[in-house]
Amino acid sequence: MPAGCDTWGMTPDQAGEAAEVTAFWRELGIPGLVDVHVHFMPANVLAKVWAFFNEGKEGGRPWHVVYQLPQDERLALLRAFGVRRFGALLYPHKPDMAAWLNSWAVEFAAETPDALHSATFFPEPGAGEYVASAVAAGARLFKAHLQVGRYDPRDELLEPVWGLLAEAGVPVVVHCGSGPTPGLFTGPGPISEVLARHRDLRMIVAHMGAPEYTEFLDLADRHQGVHLDTTMAFSDFLEWRMPFPRDLLPRLAALGDRIVLGTDFPNIPYRYEHQLHALAKLGLGDDWLAAVCYHNPTRLLGLRQGAR
Ligand SMILES: [Zn+2]
Question: How far is the CA of 2 from the centre of ligand 1 (A)?
Answer without folding.
Answer: 32
